[in-house]
Amino acid sequence: MKFEKLFLYLIVSLFFFKGTDATTHEPDSLLARFNIAEQAGDSISMLSTLSDLAKYYDDSEKFDTAAIFYNRAIRIADSISDKARLAEMQNRLGNIHLLWGSYRKALDLYLESLLICNEINDSSGISRALNNIGVIYSDWGEKAISLDYYQRSLEVDSLLGDIEGQSKTLNNIAILFDEMGDKERALRYYYRALGLAALIEDHNMLAVASSNIGGYYLEIEDFERAADFYFKTMEEYKLDRSIVGQAETYILIGDLYKANEEFSAALDYYTQGLEIVMPRKLNKPIMDAYEGMHEAYIEQGNYKEALTYFSLFHVLMDSIFSIKTSTELAALTNAYEIQQKDQDLELQQARMNEQKSRIRRQQLAMIALAGLIVIIAIFASLLIRQYRLRMKAWTHLLLQHEEILKNRQELIIARDKAEESDRLKTTFLVNVSHELRTPMNGIMGFTELMQRGSGTADQNKQYLSYIASSSRQLLKVLNDIIDISSIETGQMKLEPEICKPDKVFNDLLNFFKKEKKDSNKDKIDIKYLAAPDAAKHQCTADKKRLAQVIFNLVNNALIFTSEGSIEFGYEITDNSMIHIFVKDTGIGIERSNFEMIFERFRQVDGSTTRQHGGSGLGLAICKELIKLMDGRIYLESEIGKGSTFHVEIPYLPVG
Question: Residue 567's domain is classified under what CATH number?
Answer without folding.
Answer: 3.30.565.10
